[in-house]
Amino acid sequence: MTAELVRGQNHTLPQTRLEIRVSAGSPVVAGATLGDERGTVRGVEWIAHPGSHRLPGLEVSQQAAADHRLAVDLDALPGAVHRVTVLLALPTGAGRPVSFGAVAAPFVAVTGLDGTEIATFTLTGLDTESAVSALELYRRQGVWKVRAVGQGYAAGLAEMLADQGLAGAAELAASIQEAVSSGLARSVAPPPRAPDPERVRHPAGPAPSAGGTEPPPPGPGGGPTPVPAVPAPGPALASGERTIPQDPGTAPGGPIDYAHPRRRSSTPPPPPPTAPPAAPGQPAQPVAGDAAGWSMDERLYNQIWGMFEDLARAVAAHRSAVDFAESRMDRELDQALSDPRSRIGGAGDRARAEATAKRDELTTRAREALDRDLAQLAAESAVVEPALPAAFAGWDNPVWHGYRVPMEIPMALRLGDLHLPERTDLRIPLLVRLPLERGIWVDSGRTASEAAGAGGDRLRVLAMETAVVLAARLLAVYPADEFSVHVIDPAGAAAGALAPLVASGALAGPPASGAGGVSSVLDRLTRRVDLVQMAIRAGAADSLPPDLDTGEQLLIVNDFPHGFDDRAVTQLRYLADEGTAVGVHLLMVADREDARAYGPVLDPLWRSLLRITPVADDHLADPWVGHAWTYEPLRAPQGSRVLQQVLALVAAARRDRLR
Predict the structure, then answer these.
(1) In the predicted structure, residue 243 carries a pLDDT above the cut 60
(2) Which among 242, 245, 246, 244 has a CA at the least distance from the CA of 609?
(3) Residues 225-248, mean pLDDT to the nearest whole number
(4) How many CB atoms lie within 10 A of CB 40?
(5) 566-574 vs 514-538: helix axis angle to the nearest 10?
(6) Of 329, 334, 336, nearest to 357 (Cα)?
(7) Looking at residue 193, what is its pLDDT?
(8) What are the two backbone dihedrals, phi and then psi, of residue 528, each rounded to the nearest 5 degrees?
(9) What is the overall mean pLDDT for the chain?
(10) What's the pTM?
């Protein structure tokens, strides 16, 4: 099955002789660089480009084109090579696009020699960049993998090559563009052809990435990435965590016909619904699902991404205007009062009054503009929220009262809400792409807003309840036989919080406690990861043991690191690093301070997970302007039994499938 990657996601390569196919809406230059174990390009002899298109184990196109095929033989690469990075750049010249934001999003596919797709990646979200690192093939512990990168460079090829450690990057970039220009001057435009249904591309609109980190979560994740892709894909936080995974914005330029790369038809997506015309002087009335997309779910997902971006940029503009007004007032006062004589009499008072009046006028106008934007976003939220499907909706949404176990996986899941202090009642759903691109860490320790929530043992209980609610949502949005939840509770301290999962029978087994229970669950899941990885590498997925559950797995780990020995810690790190790619995900409930004794052993685990909190906390940052967004976890309404009712339906569907 083809892996459709998002920014930051990786996938194991089942073979070493590959073809990389590039499809773009405009001629692009395609090349590749070889990197050592640190990703450094050691010299020009490690770069394949139109002027030098063939290296051992690697061959690229000799001129710019809208479609490329790059040949790669990983076994034939020099032994010092640990990474192959595929580069795309726009050719220079009059009348040509100067940035990827003005052209259709490039689509890249890694295939076998028989044309079977292994992994695909659509490079959405590009704007002013004229060169981009599309993806990389890298070797880890003797196994080759592919990772979706999508890192753009506004300064073009020279900046991109310099970023990989190449000396003389500017000179080489100039020679590459010169060779491409010569080839274009000699070329003849090909006749028009019908679009290839296998190579049409994603819409340029947002897709939400912590996992990259990416936002990125809203999902504002690897793109609210964590907002939504933003996910992107997820999130580095103000306190050393993650950024909301950034997700792409709409490409500027004229109307472009985008289509989904997995569609078998070149028919463009249906137009979104439009609002009735507004009265003169009045803002347009918002409509749910007015973004681009093939389905209503995709349109709503993209619309939420747009709302997240609009709110981030509107607030950034307001804060910038206020800062400018303050700094201008300070500057004018300094100039007016720099002469001691102006401080005597009424001259100084007049200068202060004039400077203050100008500041107040600017801030008032900025606030009026912000209020207009916020009012429009609030009106849009009011029509979008009731229209959301269950996977995107809060627990208080009436859609849950008509819940039925789905037959297919949704594109994203809501983890909570995000808001900014300028208007706290305007909430943006935090969406992350499914399948999960990375695990989640629910912080049971101190938070910036602990005083507003609870402290000590109460905070630990809230953290576990948050994890249970997230697990319930994941169980609810997956088909009955495609998702299982396991629990490790070494001391049995979470019995109360786990009651909804245990009582409904939705768990794959009873919560594991004690050293033996911890070891048994971790051994079983690491064995699953090992077996699936080996089957993928050998191309023998049908040879897996019949008792192996190939569905997605979620492991809830409570009160870490209490009750975990060094071997268990190593297994958890292994699951965090390797499990996500083969469907095993971690949901850690832990206090970072309690785990600090492990030092650098746990740092990679901490960095690889998306951190959320059980109480409102402003620890998430967006990838555009770095706002500190306040995250609020999802909770069922007080006194509601919606959680228990949904879990009962899930458990009943699981039992029916097993009969």
Answers:
(1) no
(2) 242
(3) 37
(4) 16
(5) 30
(6) 329
(7) 38
(8) -60, -45
(9) 80
(10) 0.60
